[in-house]
Amino acid sequence: MKKGLMMFVASIALLLSACSRDTREKLYVYNVGEYIDREVLNLFEEEFNCKVIYELYDSNETMYQKIKAGGTNYDVAFPSDYMVEKMIKDDLLIPLDYELIPNFQYIDEKYKHLPYDPENSYTVPYFWGTVGILYDQSVIKEPVDSWSVLWDDAYKGNVFMYDSQRDSLMVALKLLGYSMNTHDIEELEEAKQLLIDQRPLVYAYVTDQVIDNMISGNAALAVVYSGDATYIMDENENMNYVIPKEGSNIWVDSMVIPKTAQNVELAHEFINFMQRPDIALMNTEYVMYSTPNTETLKMVADQEWTQNDAYSPSEELLATLPMETFRDPGEFIKQYDDIWTQVLAAPNRR
Amino acid sequence: MVNKWLSRCYLAIMFLFLYAPIAVLIVFSFNESKSSGKWTGFSLHWYEELLQDSQMQTALFYTIIVATLATAISTVVGTFTSIGIFKLTKKTKAFVLNVNYLPVISPDIVLAVALMMLFKTLKMKFGFTTMLLAHIMFCIPYVVLSVLPRLYAMNPNLAEAAMDLGATPMQAIRKVVIPEILPGIMAGALMAFTMSIDDFVISYFTAGNGVTNLSIEVYSMAKRGIRPTVNALATIMVSFILVSVLISNNLSIKKKREV
Amino acid sequence: MHESTKRLSYPYIVWISIIIIIPMLLIFLYSLIDPSDGNPMAFRLTIDNYVKFFSPIYISTLARSLWIAVWSTLACLLLGYPLAWVIAQCHPKKQSSLLLLFIMPMWINMLLRTYAWISILGKNGILNNILEFFHLAPVDIMYTDFAIILGMVYNFLPFMVLPIHTAIAKVDKNLIDAARDLGANNRQVFSKVVFPLTLPGIITGVIMVFLPAVSTFVIPQLLGGGQFMMIGNLIEKQFLLTGNWYFGSALSMILMIFILLSIWLMKRFDSDGQAGGALPW
Fold it and tell me: Taking the mean position of all CA atoms in its chain, how far away is CA B91?
């Protein structure tokens, strides 16, 4: 018994040390799940003779807490727009040396110098997209072009909302014609009332579940992220995606180097590598989110799955609609939170 | 007789209830499509991918190591602690037991953040050690909670008798008390292992720097849809466990026949 | 046992002081800090975080979480007791295998298993396909309270079965026979002999199911479709989303108080204080 235990401990010690014996340079990459073609990591390891230690997080918020706490050495992370702004504010990011990232030239000018990083000194865009309505054309015959369809009694119990306070409030605020970054309590109260009125119609508030549900046609309407919409439409041809006329959220996820980085040089190489057109192609084909890389875009432009308003909405469309990007609300987030808590405290459909 | 039939039936229904989702998992691990929203055809694609996924293998490795170590340590510590608690004065006993409840009753996120702060204050680097310590922290209470009722139910004269017959307290514990409370210890160990293997939030906030576990992998996928490679892994785990249970069952039956 | 055996618990006392009590004190301290002060070094003590809780929204959130947890625990008890009984009647060798088989699903990630339930219960899911095959009317239980309770029972049932089984297994068969000899019928044997003897196991089981049920939010979110805020969810949001650790800490303290209160209530049924971790009151 005791011998067995000793053997067990010894073998674990051996295994653990075997894991750390790799003498190659290490790069700690911190990304949200299912947001990369893992083959890319192998290619990078081969090309730069290093070991990529790839770790996952489930949301911008958990990533932020983890990086803020310290005690870790993540070299590259992938925050969304508003989170980039928050991280810059909190001094958690290292300014990038764009000399080391020549592939930055391929990034479409539209995704540079955005409000969250006005000087564009911390970020290289990774993916971008919009939020819109995905609807089942076999159920909904009338044209869909407004958020108001989500309030239509005819589709009671047939609506998936996105289970996130800011995304749901965005829908209501946009329908009312307000900014989704509003700091006006009155406007938020109006949006709250609208969302409470909508509750009896909503089937469920979900995040990733919307994908499987819409693929199997469990509801007729859903608020979705464009990248997920691209994938759903690829699997279920009855579905169509539309960016409502009241405007919506246009978002960008970026690559950044947090202050926890130990290997800043290699991190730059990695970011550069990720925007090499052939690598960005692998990623966009795998994840099905829209690439900001102009060269890569040309390569996928004639593929069937990109022919829609989810993957590649037309320039005019985006230019004419009142699109916005989320900003970090700072302390005001507590107001958003209170409003959303009140929405969920209201009675629902059953 | 009717009674026996009825209880068999009930057992079967409960088994169906517990294993139906597992069966679904297994079926979808052979699905061609990435989505579990529809069945598009049989494929071993996800198993091939699992073989190449070094990330998933690392996660599996850490999951098993941490769960095994945390279970072993908490079972030993928890058992001896329970025996010790049993003899404490009423006040100290109440104190220890109440504190023992805290990890069980606090929401995971609270423990996770609190531990993160503690480890940070102690200037520990997040990784294997911090995650293991955290797991031991929330596993021991379950062992104590399972072992104590057994101790209360035990005839206290047994140990006394052993010592009257010349056994040292340690011998009495080893030869008399532990065999007596063994079912409680096993139940506690099972519980600890289960809690450790399933934990996400605490692991997430106390691990880091390349150390991760399966729960972190799975929960992180939840934002963009779960990849069937984890279904494939789950299928392998289920088959492995089922086979070992069957083998051990067979062995014990054989042994009995030989006797 | 010898008095000196109490020394065996000393290492654990040191351990819990460091790894449980200090973090908990930190949480308690946080719950008393004024959130409006940006600087945690120059904090001001206040009970505002607790006062904030006493608004209808937050109270209803807690009440709802407690309500769902009570129903789930009850369902677990009603399903789990007979189950533990049936298992305890099997051959001892078979018992351990059966118990292991009941625990085993829990070693597969909870999230994965819960997602599988979504495939089963969905509108066009497996269950409705089966019903359709038998020409039965489809059911719409996904994203309802029923789905939440089903998910909780599914996930927490083993926590109920294990302690009850332990308790049943050690009931002396002679006692039951003696009761029968004295003319007790089945119901009397159960209510006068078996039930009182297994009560400590029941209480431990109830506590072990109730605790995770009240603070979980993954199951309500996935199977309940995020229709309602749960207390666990609310607390998580304070720590992650709004960064209001102070209010989050206060909420956790309140939740803990409620849970301790519930445990205390349950313990009152158990006059001998035999269930795991007897509380002092």
Answer: 31
Q: Which chains does chain A touch, 3 or more C-beta pairs < 8 A?
A: B, C
Rounded CA gap, A156 and B46, in Å?
A: 38
What are the residue boundaries of the structural domains of chain A, listed by start?
A: 2-128+252-305, 129-250+311-345
CATH number of the domain residue C196 falls in: 1.10.3720.10
Asked if the Cβ–Cβ distance from A337 to C237 is below 8 Å, we say yes
Written in H, E and C, the secondary structure of B151-167 is HHHCCCHHHHHHHHCCC
Contacts of C2 in chain B (CB under 8 A): 87, 159, 163, 169, 172
Quick one: average pLDDT of B99-114? 83
**C227/A345 CB distance under 8 A:** no
Nearest-angstrom CA–CA distance, A322 and A250: 10
Q: In this complex, do C215 and B237 lie within 8 Å of one another by their Cβ atoms?
A: no
Residues of A with CB under 8 A from a CB of B: 5, 8, 12, 15-16, 19, 26, 28, 32-35, 38, 53-59, 62, 65-66, 69-73, 207-208, 211-216, 228, 231, 235, 287
Contacts with C36 (C-beta within 8 Å, 6 or more apart), sequence order: none
Q: Is the dihedral of CA A89, B123, A23, A15 positive or negative?
A: negative
Nearest to A61 among C60, C118, C241 (CB): C241
* Lookup result for tokens 């086979």: B243
3-state secondary structure of A124: strand
| C86 contact residues in B (CB cutoff 8 A) | 7, 10-11
Range of the domain at C208: 59-267
Alpha helical stretches, state H, C90-230:
92-103, 110-121, 126-133, 145-169, 173-181, 186-188, 195-215, 218-223
CATH topology of domain B57-226: MetI-like fold (1.10.3720)
Which residue on chain A is closest to B205 by alpha carbon? Answer: A66
Q: Convert B41-78 to b/e letters by CB count within 10 Å (16 or more is b).
A: eeeebbbeebeebebbebbbbbbbbbbebbbbbbbebb
The ipTM estimated for the assembled molecules is 0.84
Tens digits of residue pLDDT in A17-67: 555 567 789 999 999 988 999 899 999 999 999 999 999 898 899 899 889
Token digits of residue A28: 């700690």
Q: Which of A29-33, A103-107, B48-52, C117-121 has the highest mean pLDDT?
A: A103-107
Token reading at C120: 């089963």
* Cβ–Cβ below 8 Å for C222 and A219: no
Q: Which residues of C touch B115 (CB under 8 A)?
A: 19, 23
Tokens describing residue B118: 């503690």
CA C30 to chain CA mean position, Å = 26
pLDDT digits (tens, 9 = 90+) for B33-83: 887 777 888 989 899 988 888 888 888 999 999 999 999 999 999 998 888
H or E segment and range at residue A251: strand A250-255
Residue C253 and residue C28 in contact, taking contact as beta carbons nearer than 8 Å = yes
Question: How many separate domains does chain C show?
Answer: 1
Question: What average pLDDT does chain C have?
Answer: 85
Among 3.40.50.720, 3.20.20.60, 3.90.1300.10, 3.40.190.10, name the CATH number for the domain at A129-250+311-345: 3.40.190.10
CATH topology of domain A2-128+252-305: D-Maltodextrin-Binding Protein; domain 2 (3.40.190)
The residue extents of the domains of chain B are: 57-226, 230-259
| B38 interaction partners in chain A (CB closer than 8 Å) | 215-216, 235
Q: How many CB atoms within 10 Å of residue A244? A: 21
User: Is residue C139 domain-resident?
Assistant: yes
In whole angstroms, what is the distance from residue B67 CA to residue A337 CA?
36
Comparing CA positions, the residue from A61, B144, B106 lying closest to residue C25 is: B106
Nearest CB among C1, C24, C27 relative to B159 is that of: C1
